[in-house]
Amino acid sequence: MSTPKQVALVTGANKGLGFEIARQLGRRGITVLIGSRDKDKGRIAAEYLTSENIDAHGVILDVTHFPSIERVRHFIEQEYGRLDILVNNAGIHHDWTLKTSDFPVEITHEVFETNFFGVISVTNTLLSLLRKSEAARIVNVSSTLGSLSVQSDPASPYYEMKTFGYNASKTALNAYTVHLAHELRETPIKVNSACPGWVKTDMGGENAPGTVEQGADTPVWLATLPADGPTGGFFNSRESVPW
């Protein structure tokens, strides 16, 4: 099958930032697939968006479990024939109080498995469907904490925020963005990293200054870029962030 409407997959979209990204894409008339590890949570999230007249569907997706990624690829291929937008939003964090020298290797592996290797698995598996789109967009939800320039600048407000496993996973994710964008530079596909900022989610906490609506703005902007939009970039509040 094929559909004239654009189709977007957002990973980790049953709540928080991912849910809001899906909502904002859906309000643009885009069919949104709610990637969630939990079937019921994904279904409930999709039903909520459907009540807002958004074409939303829950799909079971664990970015660390390749068989579930394959099943999602098969579903999209059978139902829609292509994928127009992929937002790699799923991510985890860890104990923010751990010092770099005390950081357990096991936790580093766990964080990278979701925040980095999971993105690679999902993106590479779905790339054949993204190539079938007239102009696909890939958005990797990163963090300014992954910027080596910002993290090494004593004048930066982020200088003291040394949460090694999380920060390093986002630095690696940004490298993947650069490399994949370069590989696809002669195609209509655009690949960018987005920092949503510090927003009120389970990860960000209640003290975060930003809302999920504000945090979703840059990822949605990158997911809907026109043909002359950027690729291979890193953005926060629609402005470039140094690598």
Detailed description of the structure:
There is one protein chain. With 243 residues, the protein is of the alpha/beta class. Helix content is 41%, strand content 14%. It has an eight-stranded mixed β-sheet, with helices on both faces. Helix 3 packs parallel to helix 4.
Comma- or semicolon-separated keywords:
243 residues; alpha/beta; 7 helices; 8 strands
Short note summarizing the structure:
With 243 residues, this protein is α/β, with parallel strands linked by helices. The chain is 41% helix and 14% strand. α4 links the parallel β4 and β5.
Roughly how much helix do the residues carry, as a percent range?
40-55%
Q: Order of strands across the biggest sheet?
A: 3-2-1-4-5-6-7-8
% residues in beta strands: 5-15%
Tell me the overall shape: globular
Q: Give the number of DSSP strands.
A: 8
Element order: H for helix, E for strand? EHEHEHEHEHHEHEE
Number of helices: 7
Uncertain residue ranges: none
Q: How would you state the average pLDDT, rounded?
A: 93
Kindly, what is the distance between the CA atoms of the first and last residues, rounded to a whole number of angstroms?
Answer: 40 Å
The chain-level structural class is: alpha/beta
Rg, alpha carbons: 17 Å
Q: What profile does the largest beta sheet have?
A: 8 strands, mixed
List the helices and strands and how they pair.
Blueprint (H helix, E strand, L loop, with lengths): L6 E4 L5 H11 L4 E6 L2 H12 L5 E5 L5 H14 L5 E4 L16 H26 L6 E5 L6 H4 L12 H20 L6 E6 L16 H12 L10 E3 L2 E2 L3
Parallel strand pairs: 1-2, 1-4, 2-3, 4-5, 5-6, 6-7
Antiparallel strand pairs: 7-8
Helix pairs in contact: 1-7, 3-4, 4-6
